[in-house]
Write a structure and sequence with these properties.
Elements lengths: L2 H5 L1 H19 L2 H5 L3 H9 L8 H20 L3 H7 L2 H15 L7 H26 L2 H28 L4 E3 L2 E2 L7 H21 L3 H20 L3 H18 L3 H24 L2 H12 L10 H14 L10 H4 L9 H34 L3 H20 L9 H35 L14
Antiparallel strand pairs: 1-2
Helix pairs in contact: 2-5, 4-9, 5-8, 6-8, 6-19, 7-8, 7-17, 8-19, 9-10, 9-11, 10-11, 10-12, 10-18, 11-13, 12-14, 12-18, 15-17, 17-18, 17-19, 18-19
């Protein structure tokens, strides 16, 4: 049976990869969820994508689904069931139903069908996987570790290609690992990596871990600015402020933030030595002015088109994917709220606002209720969710903003886990009190009770 694999090396490699993938899925849902960025690194090394267009998306959706199935077979997921009944999950499913209902009337049903499939594979499946990861402390921290490792891998590969002269701009003043990848995704991953690296500095109990996390900050900063994307840079700055506010309440946290500041100072020295000034100028132009400045890069016209289309069909919109008929050159308006509004009307807009608002409320409630290391975990999830939200308001289609559902799902799972733990502790205490029996209090002589 294995003879074909021995005769054809490609098949053999695929077979080994399948075995490793199944083993990782059995170990934890965190692996397939966090390794979604690996295909970009492989494509950059190999030079091409061996899979058909869209193949990676559905392979990872299936991989996450298998991992969730394994987790269910192992049992012990009371918290996951509670999280899956939460408001953001229910509203996400209702939004799916509305997209299905509005696919038929869409003036661009072909693109609408693709969008619908990717919403399931890139948003809902990742939300499901994230909920299961969030219900276990070890899985959540494993996910953050692997996500950081993937971001560092992308940044390191980019640095090597820059230094060797192999990397060229894919768009004006913008770099990416492959010509097939839009630079903004590199910027988003690097921004998330920077936040998680700072989180690692704050959370690590070992000195070498803190030093390693500090050392990768300049590397990730180079990748972020090399992409030349302004939105992720602005979102990162907002997220950094939020993370500092949520974590700098204790003295040792403030001292560790100073260590992170030293890493960012190193980034300020390294970046001009590696990157051309044009790429740096474009990336930071929204903050300091300069090339591009506060220009919307054509987005203002797209937003205007989306608003006009919504005004003409306010209740249920044009239909799923319908914005593509307004502007064939741009399939979406680069704003998740306007995109859903023009295609699904006021009903869709209320659903997306409900998903975001209920997720944000749950995340902040989680941060307030948590303590110790859990509070730090909650703080980084709040920060990353806000970064994803800012990115979703300025770039990408709904299916391109997977991170919004991932960070929300992790927070929902973690919140449900802490709730189950509190209920379990309460039941144990109640059981102990019943076993102890009634407590008799002897009154003091001369008291009214006597």
């Amino acid at each position: 049976m294995l003879l074909p694999a021995l005769m054809r090396p490609t098949m053999g490699i695929a077979l080994v990869g399948l075995v490793v993938a199944i083993w990782l899925a059995w170990k934890s849902v965190a692996y397939p969820l966090a390794l979604a960025g690996i295909p970009t690194i492989i494509n950059a090394i190999v030079g091409s994508n061996p899979l058909p267009k869209g193949g990676v998306t559905f392979i990872f959706a299936a991989w996450i689904g298998i991992a969730v199935l394994f987790a269910l077979l192992r049992g012990g997921h009371e918290a996951a069931g509670r999280a899956l009944m939460s408001t953001p999950v229910v509203l996400s499913l209702v939004l799916l139903g509305l997209m299905v209902l509005r696919l038929g009337p869409s003036p661009d049903a072909a693109y609408g069908s693709v969008k619908l499939q990717h919403y399931i594979a890139d948003n809902l499946v990742f939300l499901l996987g994230a909920v299961f990861v969030g219900t276990r402390r070890s899985d959540l921290r494993l996910f953050l570790t692997v996500t950081l490792a993937v971001a560092v891998g992308e940044a390191l590969l980019l640095m090597l290609k820059l230094l060797s002269g192999e990397l060229h701009t894919t768009l004006e003043n913008r770099f990416s690992l492959t010509t097939q990848e839009y630079p903004i995704y590199l910027a988003r991953n690097s921004a998330d990596g920077l936040i998680i690296a700072v989180y690692a500095i704050l959370a690590a109990s070992r000195t070498w871990t803190r030093i390693g996390a500090t050392a990768v900050l300049p590397l990730l900063a180079v990748a972020l600015l090399a992409a030349g994307s302004r939105g992720p840079v602005v979102a990162l700055l907002v997220g950094a402020v939020v993370l500092v506010v949520l974590t700098a309440t204790r003295g040792h946290a403030r001292r560790r933030l100073l260590l992170a500041g030293a890493g960012l100072l190193g980034a300020a020295i390294l970046v001009p030595l590696i990157l051309p000034g044009s790429a740096i100028g474009r990336a930071v132009s929204a903050i300091v002015g300069g090339v591009g400045g506060l220009s919307t890069n054509g987005r203002a016209a797209l937003w205007s088109q989306a608003y006009t289309g919504f005004a003409q069909h306010p209740l249920l919109g044009l239909g799923t994917g319908g914005f593509a008929s307004l502007n064939p050159g741009e399939l979406y308006p680069h704003n998740i709220l306007l995109e859903v509004s023009v295609e699904l009307g006021l009903v869709g807009a209320l659903l997306i606002v409900g998903i975001v608002a209920s997720s944000m409320r749950r995340l902040f409630a989680l941060w307030r209720a948590a303590s110790g290391r859990d509070k730090l975990d909650a703080a980084v999830l709040v920060t990353l969710f806000l970064i994803a939200l800012l990115n979703a308001l300025f770039s990408g289609a709904i299916q391109d903003n997977t991170e919004l559902w991932v960070w929300a799902g992790l927070g929902l799972g973690m919140s449900a886990r802490l709730t189950v733990e509190r209920l379990r502790t309460r039941r144990v205490r109640t059981r102990e009190l019943w076993r102890a029996g009634p407590v008799v209090v002897e009154p003091r002589p001369g008291s009214a009770a006597t």
